[in-house]
Write a structure and sequence with these properties.
single chain; Arc Repressor Mutant, subunit A; 3-stranded antiparallel beta sheet; globular; DUF4194 domain-containing protein; MksE
Amino acid sequence: MPKENHNKQIFEILSKGHFISSNSINPTQKKLYQYLEKEKEATQDYFDQIGFYLVEGKDCFYFSREEEKSTLKSKLERAMRWISILDFFKSYDESFGVGTQITPSEISSIIGVNQNLKNKLNLLKRITKKEKYDESVNELFEILKKEGFVEVIDDLSMTYKVLNSFSYLEELILSIDIEEPTTNEN
């Protein structure tokens, strides 16, 4: 496959805010990841020329670009959205992360007996726009899938696999440093 075709495919995926992960089950994504590993510098130079910065994360690639400060508010809103979604899944299982294989029904089945999880899902209804718990959980998986953080590995059972790109979310949230207010004790 010629280099131009690879760059076109890479751009089509990454310009939408998605990721190219090394553990994707999609054969095209696997080939593109291998290509990026081999041709990282040349590909970075290519995209730099058009204002996109190819970034290598933990076993994944994504685009970054300089943005105006006016977009800061929307970036913070998106970050808060992802924090809430990640918090929900980590509340279900602290080990939820790269490589996890799970069905939405596994999570839905314990919401009735886990008040903490139910409360977190209720807060996420503003994102999912679904009333029923099982529909909300399904919608969260669809959001993760759309953004390239999970893939369906079994259509029959609707089993999802968490991709390496998910570590980007985890690292993003861990990088947020919120200082505790200090009190002067005299």
